[in-house]
Design goal:
The complex is a heterotrimer of chains A (about 280), B (about 220) and C (about 250).
Chain A (H helix, E strand, L loop, with lengths): L4 H35 L4 H5 L13 H32 L4 H15 L2 H15 L6 H25 L3 H9 L4 H30 L2 H7 L16 H11 L3 H33 L4
Helix pairs in contact in A: 1-11, 3-6, 3-8, 4-6, 5-6, 5-9, 6-8, 6-9, 7-8, 8-11, 10-11
Chain B lengths: L3 H34 L2 H32 L3 H34 L10 H21 L3 H9 L1 H21 L4 H33 L11
Helix pairs in contact in B: 1-2, 1-3, 1-4, 2-3, 3-7, 4-5, 4-6, 4-7, 5-7, 6-7
Chain C lengths: L4 E10 L2 E11 L4 E5 L6 H7 L10 E9 L2 E2 L7 H7 E4 L10 H11 L5 H14 L3 H4 L12 H13 L5 E5 L7 H14 L4 E5 L3 H7 L2 E6 L2 E7 H6 L4 H7 L5
Parallel strand pairs in C: 3-8, 3-9, 6-7, 7-8
Antiparallel strand pairs in C: 1-2, 1-4, 4-5, 9-10
The chains are: A mainly alpha (about 280), B mainly alpha (about 220), C alpha/beta (about 250).
Chain lengths: ~280, ~220, ~250
């Protein structure tokens, strides 16, 4: 077929537009379906009662919400300094030698390992060997291992994106390397790092299988980070697989979606505030 | 090739300097010829042609300014242009001296000659020769030749002494010859000044090569 | 008067490639020294050895001496941070931090530990005045440095350097990214600054070197071919290579 360039352009534009619209529609459909079917089931009782456990689909999701929040807080508290610190080392301090290349390669490999494998690792080490038993702590530590490569990658990319001229300017003014990292590179890389953190939070909330084997499936309200628990995603799995309460499953899904939305929006808002303050704008 | 158009333009300007030089040479030769042969027509022609010499000098000057403005020359390029600017001034003045000789020829008109002219033509020939060689030294950037030519100014000065003393004896012997004699002294003076101007040109040649302006031996006058 | 910086037999290698060969020259105090030469001749590399900015590039090797007021800045035990405070640098592309004008100007002193608000304010005004930028920005110090025009950004970078109170200011083609008017403003600024500082500038623009500098060094393939007063270099260069370069008949 010998199409004129103008015609090809129109076709290409039409095709890409259609693809874009289709993707958005599919997403909206899925989210819409879950929210539509699930929101009707949500009521204060649902939110504030723990699930009954066992094979019945009764009860609410209060313990799941609490467990999920605890999990995110503990996991991110450990993951963030670890991931950003490692990224700072790789981006700014690591010399270009075999050892550094080995570290990078290992990180890339880890990123490709399926999450259930991390779950089994977590089970063997945190639950059994370290005697944490089924606990939020074990789950959090497992998530740290799982998500570390991603955060390191995002943070390192964000820091690498800061132009070399900024570093040179700071060093030429008599700043030490660490001062340059803290006062010039980190503020500039912050948006990218925050995005990385949000993605990790989303990843944490989305995990089901690997948390099932490290946190157990207890439906009760967790009392400390050493208690076992059931996150929202795991609960959805339970309801869908073990019970007939599909409506409750969808409701839990809706809550999940809303939770992710809130986390994303507030992190973005915090990052905006921080950025504005850092750049000295009003 | 870098700066080809600049070199081409500069070469053109140098050619124009040679053209101006030959115009001036001709003016000297024709003015002395007009004086010797009482050719008033030729003399008037020399006077009229001086306007062309002046114009040529201005044209070359403008060409130099344009080159400086558009090309921002430095080092030896700049020295060549500065040298050209100064040389054409000297050439134009020599042209004025030749015009002066031609005007004297017109003033003398049909008067009986005081004596056959021997030394004056010799001075003119020497000046023309020095002029030609000095401009060649400029084109070939030969500072040694320029220094030698400059030294030959002494010959012209000596000839001037001779003419002056000879005319002085005429005037002392017979006061009626004073007018004619002083006119001839004036011609000699014009030729001697022309030779001095040529030493200036030689100094510029040395400047072009070394970058320094030095006085090459002071003239007696 | 002793020269401010004395460079002796400086050799510099990037890995196996030798970028500077036995460079020896004196940078005179309160004068502007220009370094000219074709691309890749080593002049920027040389400039960066004067404030040890080449230290941040891996696999480099330096031999020889760079004496600042008689003391070798490459001797063991010398504090690099101290050297860079005394020898400041302005880069080719203006590179203000994505912070406010105030924060930019105050960066150096802050890193030194100065945090007293009143002295910072005074310091900012002083530096911005010296950089001929104060009048244009004094009502808007909170504006982002990136919102300024190219010429203003470069003057902000100069103010940033001045705030640290250096003795020498290195400029690596500071005007090459700027329009002619901004360039002239900065050249005027340099004439003013040389009264209190020593300036070394790398430039590709020979007319600029001729206009602005007191001394000029011509670099070729890592060596200093000729180093002399600017008026001498541009009217009576001694080396044919210098003559060929400045008259544009190179190559």
């Amino acid at each position: 077929m010998n199409l004129s360039p103008k015609l090809t352009q129109k076709l290409a534009w039409g095709f890409t537009w259609a693809a874009g619209v289709a993707s958005v529609l599919i997403l909206l459909f899925i989210i819409g379906y879950v929210l539509a079917k699930g929101l009707s089931v949500i009521n204060p009782e649902f939110l504030f009662t723990p699930p009954k456990g066992g094979l019945s689909g009764e009860g609410g999701i209060s313990s799941c919400i609490v467990a999920t929040l605890w999990l995110i807080v503990i996991a991110m508290a450990i993951l963030t300094p670890l991931g950003i610190g490692a990224a700072i080392y790789l981006a700014e301090y690591a010399p270009d030698n075999k050892f550094t290349r080995l570290i990078r390669y290992s990180v890339e490999l880890l990123a490709g390992v399926p999450s259930i494998v991390f779950g089994l690792f977590g089970f063997a080490i945190f639950v059994l060997a370290l005697h944490f038993n089924y606990s939020i702590l074990a789950g959090a530590l497992t998530l740290v291992c799982l998500l570390l490569p991603f955060l390191m990658r995002s943070a390192e990319e964000a820091m690498k994106a800061v132009p070399q001229s900024q570093r040179e300017a700071a060093l030429a003014l008599g700043a030490t390397k660490w001062q340059t990292v803290v006062h010039v590179i980190m503020p500039a890389a912050l948006p990218g790092i925050i995005t990385g953190i949000i993605l990790c939070v989303g990843g944490a909330v989305a995990e089901s299988a690997c948390l099932y084997v490290t946190m157990g499936g207890s439906a009760g309200m967790p009392t400390s980070f050493l208690s076992g628990g059931r996150t929202l995603a795991v609960h959805v799995f339970y309801l869908a697989m073990e019970t007939n309460a599909l409506d409750k499953a969808l409701a839990t899904g809706a809550v999940l979606i809303i939770l992710i939305l809130i986390i994303n929006l507030s992190t973005k808002w915090l990052s905006q505030r921080f950025q504005t303050r850092m750049s000295g704008g009003t | 090739m870098p700066r080809e158009s600049f070199d081409h333009y500069l070469g053109g300007l140098q050619d124009e300097v040679l053209v101006l030089g030959s115009m001036v040479e001709k003016a000297i030769a024709r003015s002395i010829k007009a004086l010797r042969e009482r050719d008033l027509e030729l003399a008037r022609q020399v006077v009229a042609d001086d306007a062309r010499i002046n114009q040529k000098r201005l044209d070359i000057e403008e060409g130099c300014i344009e080159l400086v403005v558009t090309q921002q020359p430095v080092a030896s390029d700049l020295r060549v242009i500065v040298a050209i600017l100064n040389i054409v001034v000297d050439l134009e003045r020599i042209g004025d001296h030749a015009e002066g000789v031609a005007k004297i020829a017109v003033m003398i008109g049909d008067e009986p000659p005081l004596k056959p002219l021997v030394d004056l033509p010799r001075m003119a020939e020497k000046a023309i020769d020095m002029l030609r060689r000095s401009l060649n030294a400029f084109i070939s950037r030969d500072s040694e030749a320029a220094m030698k030519i400059s030294a030959e100014d002494d010959e012209v000065d000596n000839l001037y002494d001779q003419v002056y003393r000879e005319l002085l004896t005429f005037m002392l012997e017979d006061p009626r010859t004073i007018t004619r004699a002083t006119r001839l002294i004036w011609v000699a003076h014009n030729l001697e000044r022309s030779a001095d101007r040529i030493t200036n040109i030689c100094e510029r040649v040395v400047f072009t090569v070394t970058g320094r302006m030095e006085e090459i031996g002071a003239s007696k006058y | 008067m002793d020269p401010k910086i004395q460079i002796r037999e400086l050799d510099f290698h990037y890995g196996k490639v030798q970028a500077l060969k036995r460079v020896t020259l004196d940078i005179k105090e309160h004068q502007i020294t220009a370094l000219i030469g074709p691309s890749g001749c080593g002049k920027s590399t040389f400039l960066r050895t004067l404030n040890r900015m080449n230290d941040i590039i891996p696999h480099t090797c330096l031999e020889g001496k760079v004496l600042l007021d008689g003391l070798n800045i490459y001797e063991l035990g010398v504090d690099v941070v101290e050297v860079r405070k005394r020898v400041g640098m302005v880069f080719q592309q203006p590179n203000p931090f994505p912070k406010s004008i105030f924060e930019n100007a105050v960066f150096g002193p802050r890193m030194l530990g100065l945090n007293h608000r009143a002295s910072l304010d005074e310091m900012v005004e002083r530096s911005l005045r010296k950089a001929a930028l104060w009048d244009e920005v004094k009502d808007n110090l909170g504006k982002s440095g990136l919102a300024l025009s190219g010429g203003q950004q470069q003057r902000l970078c100069i103010a940033r350097v001045l705030a640290v109170e250096p003795e020498v200011i290195l400029m690596d083609e500071p005007c090459s990214a700027l329009d002619p008017l901004s360039t002239l403003k900065i050249e005027e600024l340099m004439q003013e600054l040389k009264k209190s500082y020593t300036i070394v500038i790398v430039t590709h623009n020979m007319q600029q070197a001729a206009r602005v500098s007191d001394w000029t060094g011509f670099f070729l393939l890592g060596e200093v071919v000729e180093y002399n007063k600017t008026s001498e270099i541009f009217s009576r260069p001694k080396d044919k290579r210098t003559e060929d370069y400045i008259t544009g008949r190179f190559g």
